[in-house]
Design goal:
Length: 147
């Protein structure tokens, strides 16, 4: 059974549920940081009965980092996609700016800026950046079991 779909042409958002795979897809408006808590809430609902304790909280944290980076550093729209199955989760935030992000070590006197990709790098089971025609996708994966 499939519920919902996403139209790339209209930007409508919808979630898809099949027997073993659940998918979340959201279009994020340019510089709209209100999308960050909404993305966390939607992911929390998607992961309601998934993984060992603590895995969904890590996924929420990493998702909010990727969404925030896309909205703050690209000055363009982005698309969040999360796919979960019994074995794992893959979250991808696609934007439309080709410049690739690089993890950096923040200066000691900086506040919380500059730590997002370091968190992703240290907490995700895998992560990366994939180029596409008009931009890039930054992604991470988490297994359902704790590392």
């Amino acid at each position: 059974m499939t519920i919902g779909a996403f139209s790339a042409t209209t930007g409508e958002e919808a979630d898809t549920i099949t027997e073993h795979v659940r998918r979340l897809r959201r279009r994020l408006g340019r510089a709209d940081l209100r999308a960050v808590p909404e993305a966390r809430r939607a992911l929390r609902e998607l992961l309601l009965h998934w993984g060992k304790p603590g895995r969904s909280e890590i996924a929420e944290l990493l998702t909010s980092e990727l969404v925030t980076n896309a909205l703050v550093h690209t000055d363009d729209d982005a698309v969040l996609t999360a796919v979960v199955d019994p074995g794992g989760l893959r979250v991808e935030v696609r934007d439309f700016v080709a410049r690739k992000p690089e993890p950096r070590t923040p200066a000691r006197d900086e506040d919380t800026h500059g730590r997002g990709l370091l968190l992703v790098q240290s907490l995700a089971d895998a992560w990366g950046v994939r180029s596409h025609g008009v931009g890039k996708a930054v992604w991470f994966e988490l297994g359902a079991e704790a590392a």
